[in-house]
Amino acid sequence: MDSYHDHHQSQHQPGLVLPTQSVQNQIHELAKSLPLPRKQNTACDACRSRKVKCNKLPGQDKCQHCLSKNFPCTHYVQQATSEKKRGTTVSRRPRNLSSGPHTISSKFTSPERSLPYPLTPSLVTPVVAQLPLNVRFGFHPHITPTTPTKDVLLYLFAPPESTMDGLPFSPNRFKSPYDAWGELASKLEDETFRAEFALDLVEVYFQIVHTRLPLLNPAQFRNGLGLQPPGSRTEESPLHPALVATVLAWGSKFSEHELLVADRKRPSGQSFFAKTLIDRARDLAEALKVHRVPSTDHVVISLLIEPLQSQSPEDQNGYHGFWLTCATRHLLALGINHKSKLADIQDPENRGTIVFAWWMTCLCDAYASAYYRRKPILDDEDYDIDFYTAGPVSVEGADTQNPGPSPREQLEFLGYYQAAHSLARTARQISRHLWKPAVDSDGVPFETLLSFSNALNEWRNDYLSAVGVPANYSGTWDFVSAVSSCASDATYHVMWIILFNALDDYGVRELNGSPSPPPNSAQIEAVKRKVADEALHGALRIAGLAGVLTSNGYLRLDPAVMHVSCIQAGTFLARLGRPEVANCIAGLEQYSYSYEEAGDQAREMRKLYEAVSTGENELNHMDSVTPRVSGISQSGPQMDLQQQGQTQNESPTASSHNHGMMMQEDPPNHTNGNGYSQPSSYSIYGR
């Protein structure tokens, strides 16, 4: 029967001879014994470099990783490999490129051995120029934690990506790949200029940012860079590349180097180069697993990266507390929250750094939870170490060339930290009791409201006169002392605004949905009115402080210590139609030179004020107890917003209950002999 069937089929299909059933079975058994064919690697260049799965959904041009990172989803490596297999690839360049001013070390070659193109940053072909930097420089494993700084600079200062449209006669085609960063950026091709420029950014960091975040030893950091002449430095192990990148990114925000000045010659007044350095610092930290491996270096890097990011909650690529959370978990993994663990750290320098990092993390976690309405990671029971346990400085054994903080400075530090910790504990309790679904649906319990009101009053009585801006100060202030006191003063007053906003959004539980007033309704209304008065007083106070700092130009040099205060106070004043909002708007506009989102926040604040001035009501549960400005009607406020801003600049503390102060017009050198100064970094994540 089988032979008849085979013969019948062959008659209908000339030339086709089918195997018999037994032969088919033999072929099937043989096929099962053969090894599986090698699966073709179709990953894009970015995923291939990061050693991650390339997940491209049907119908999309990019994979999920390139979409999230806004990378060009290219397949040059795959194309080059295919061409090589077909025997049509161009001749391969030698792996060890000849030495010269534009040569990259072989450690930066791509992980794919068959790349048919050179990897020199300023001599790349148009095809290579479109590759993401992490593909060109091969993060895994070619930039390691021990890579020398001069080689890390090749990545950080490489030309910007996707700056040309590829058309040979297009007006948007730049003569140099650096042209997107201004007319002087092409100097970054020179190795000597790169080193000098990096040193300039480092000095700016230590003058401005280090005074707020004293997490580094300036002398050790400068020596570890390895960029100074050999005779002027001691031999140190290379610095962590992500730490170098983060410090340079901070310096680029505030530097007045001619390259950055030229890059800021655009309508926004912002530097595209500074934005690029922030992105590359973050990408480098991710590639080197800073967020995954607990270590002291990774704690410091995480704490410095966090406030570099966009702090707008609506920005998908901005603030989500990611790096602050990483630092917190690293510290817990290292056991720094235990007193016994700290006693094992014998080196005073290391102990001082890690203790400051712990308290900075602890305080910022509490404040950020209140600012952004999320639960804090830490709780009061999560640590037992004494406050500021770095240890006293021995005056007898102090180095006269590099003196440590004096006992007076130590006591000053202690007072500031104790005040900050006390307020942080209150902020932590506010977050745990207010930002939960039960309060959202039912309202704030009156007992909770009364407890927080009393806690804030107690803090004011115990600490504000010591760490806040003094009344009728007759001396002169420098940059550090001015911003430090303004920050601690504003952080306290912001808490009243946060409490007001919670009451306005959720109401008081005892009043919500009650058919008849509760027996203590008069007491509830009195506490609500108290919160409204304190919030208004605090917002006016912050507006006055912002006016002083703005008129002195200090917010241009401030790493966003007062940012959240200007946002909270300005939004509150705008909702009430108060013209004093002009000071907060001016402060945010000054911040916008270094923080892009601040300009958008200033514009939104102005729109809100104008809408309320025309009669719109922005208040809910707190409407009946909130004082208004007389004259707010359909015709608008009594004073024009621009006029109010000029008035506030002439007399910046007039609306702040006459808390006046005098400051030097030009900020002096911001560090003492050893590079340490009075920190107030506990409000840095208030951005």
Automatic annotation (TrEMBL):
Any one GO MF annotation of this record: zinc ion binding
Main location: nucleus
Gene3D superfamilies: Zn(2)-C6 fungal-type DNA-binding domain
Compositionally biased residues, Polar residues: 88-110, 631-658, 669-687
Chain spans, region Disordered: 82-110, 618-687
Domain Zn(2)-C6 fungal-type positions: 43-75
GO biological process: DNA-templated transcription
Subcellular location: Nucleus
Any one GO cellular component localisation term in the record: nucleus
SUPFAM superfamilies xrefs: Zn2/Cys6 DNA-binding domain (SSF57701)
Keywords assigned by UniProt, alphabetized: Metal-binding, Nucleus, Transcription, Transcription regulation
UniProt-listed PANTHER family: ZN(II)2CYS6 TRANSCRIPTION FACTOR (EUROFUNG), ZN(II)2CYS6 TRANSCRIPTION FACTOR (EUROFUNG)-RELATED
Designated name of the protein: Zn(2)-C6 fungal-type domain-containing protein
Classification lineage: Eukaryota, Fungi, Dikarya, Basidiomycota, Agaricomycotina
